[in-house]
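Justification of resources, computational component.

The compute hours requested in this renewal are based largely on the per-chain cost of generating structure records like the one below. Each record pairs the submitted sequence with a full structure-token output. That output is archived, and it is also reused by downstream analysis tasks.
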Amino acid sequence: MRHVIENGILRVEADEEGAQLWSIRDSGGAEYLWQGDPAYWSDRALNLFPYVARLYGGCYEMDGRRYRLPIHGFAPKSVFSLAAKTESRMTFELCDSEETRAQYPRRFAFRITYALEGNRIDIRFEVENRDDRTMHFGLGGHPGFCVPLEEGRRFEDYRLRFAAPCSPVRVGFSEDCFVTGSERPFALEEDRELPLRHALFDDDAIVLRDMAREVMLFAPDGRRSVTVSFPDMPYLGIWHWPKKDAPYVCIEPWVSLPAREGETAVFERQADLVHLPAGEVYRNTWSIAIDDGKRPEASVAPMRSAMAQE
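The structure output for this chain reads:
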């Protein structure tokens, strides 16, 4: 089942399956979120939990035992409940079950809140550890955005611009998308911009660290843009389906990384995972801002909503 929030500037729809964003439209009806064409990629905006991307051999170890998880964990295919809703805000919740504990032996509540603040969607991830043991987990977003955002433009007309000059490092990946431990500088034009071209993704995702934690998708002579801000996420994935002329790009803020090449991940020892003590709650808020080019006040404002202050 899908649910809608709106505020006169944005209309946002999300599905109970995966608590996945389903649509982001401006007041004129223009769609910004990738619409899941299976010829390129059938998803739209996955929420990744309790692991980001792949485990080597599909397995990991925790508490001295071995378990299996699918790519991006079980959250993308789990049905969340609608825990709360107002006209401009909705919260989805996934709690542990017999099925989840067979894959991930912890009791938890995972909540995702979407709240509209002007032209911005604030997204809060909240993990409550209901177990008597520490939780070890990965977490991230995986939204895709239409490219082009306007008729008459091409994919190659678009760029990603970071909010400040930076010198990112590209995380090294093997051909089958596991972390290799080799890293190298990732050059940006004028230390800020990445021109888009399909061949960028022929070797799968570009994963960066040490970048500015806000990035805009735009065409220099276009009107519409999307800005993703992720102040407390140290990694950013940029992706579309490899070796295709796919008309979208995913901008993916991550808390953690996939498994290393040739190694079964041991969750207690994977340093980039969140290690949440028993009884505590982890929160991380990021945002997606839409500019339709019609309102000069639509520049992205700092995340100062009531949700961010809780």
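Residues 296-301 have pLDDT under 50 and may be disordered. Residues 173 and 180 are 5 Å apart (CA to CA).
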